[in-house]
Write a structure and sequence with these properties.
By secondary structure, the protein is α/β, with parallel strands linked by helices. The protein contains 6 helices and 7 strands. The mean pLDDT is about 95.
Length: about 210
C-alpha cells in the first residue's frame, strides 16, 4: 500500500476492511496530530481502513499555516480521496480537523469528490473573536450525512453557533459535544475518538 503520493499513513484493521476513512489535519498541524492518530486507531478497531495524510501545503514545508486560496489543498483532498477509494471496498468517509475538515467539506459541497459521509472535528465556524466572519456559505450544498465533533469551549465557534451552521445542511447530521474541550478536542473525561466514530457509524446505518 503506497501512500507516498499523499504523504499518508494507514491504520489497518484485522481482516477485510468494511470501508475507508480519509482524514487530514488542521492549519497548524500535520498527519501526526494526537487526535488524528487516536481517531484512526478507533476506526481500525471497528474494522475500517483509516488513512491520515498531509495536505499539500504541509508537504511543501514542515511548519507554518496554509497559504493562498486553498485551491491547491482542495485539489490535494480530491486526490487523497481518489487514492484511498482504491484501497478497499465499502463506504468512504472523509473529513479532518479544523481547516482540513472545512476544506474537505468544501470539496464535497462542490461535488469535486464523492463520499458517503463527512466527519468534521472542531469545525471553524468563524475565526476566534470574529463571529461576523462565518465560514458557512457552502454548508447548504452538503448532501451527505455529516458528524461534527466539537468542544464546548472552542473559540472558533460556540455550540449554539455550530447548531445554527449545521441547520443549513439538509442531510442527516449529528453534533458530538465534548464538554470543556477547546479547539484541540483534548479531554481527560471523554473518549473523543470513540464518540466520533460511533456517531458516524450511526449516521451511516441510517
Amino acid at each position: 500500500m503506497n501512500l507516498d503520493r499523499i504523504a499518508g499513513i494507514a491504520h489497518q484493521p484485522d481482516g477485510r476492511a468494511h470501508g475507508v476513512v480519509v482524514l487530514t489535519h488542521g492549519a497548524g498541524g500535520d498527519r501526526d496530530s494526537p487526535l488524528l492518530q487516536r481517531v484512526c486507531d478507533e476506526w481500525a478497531r471497528h474494522g475500517w481502513l483509516a488513512v491520515r495524510y498531509n495536505l499539500p501545503y504541509r508537504r511543501r514545508r514542515p511548519k507554518g499555516p496554509p497559504s493562498g486560496s486553498g485551491d491547491a489543498d482542495r485539489a490535494g483532498i480530491v486526490d487523497a480521496i481518489e487514492v484511498c477509494r482504491g484501497l478497499a471496498g465499502g463506504s468512504l468517509i472523509a473529513g479532518g480537523h479544523s481547516y482540513g475538515g472545512r476544506q474537505t467539506s468544501m470539496v464535497v459541497a462542490a461535488g469535486a469528490a464523492e463520499v458517503d459521509a463527512l466527519t468534521l472535528f472542531s469545525y471553524p465556524v468563524h475565526p476566534p473573536g470574529k463571529p461576523e466572519r462565518a465560514r458557512t456559505e457552502h454548508l447548504p450544498s452538503i448532501t451527505v450525512p455529516t458528524v461534527f465533533t466539537h468542544g464546548t469551549s472552542d473559540p472558533f465557534g460556540t455550540i449554539a453557533e455550530l447548531r445554527d451552521a449545521v441547520a443549513l445542511i439538509a442531510a442527516p447530521t449529528e453534533i458530538v459535544e465534548i464538554t470543556g474541550a477547546r479547539h484541540d478536542l483534548a479531554s481527560k473525561a471523554l473518549d473523543v475518538a470513540a464518540l466520533a466514530v460511533d456517531a458516524a457509524l450511526r449516521l451511516l446505518a441510517g
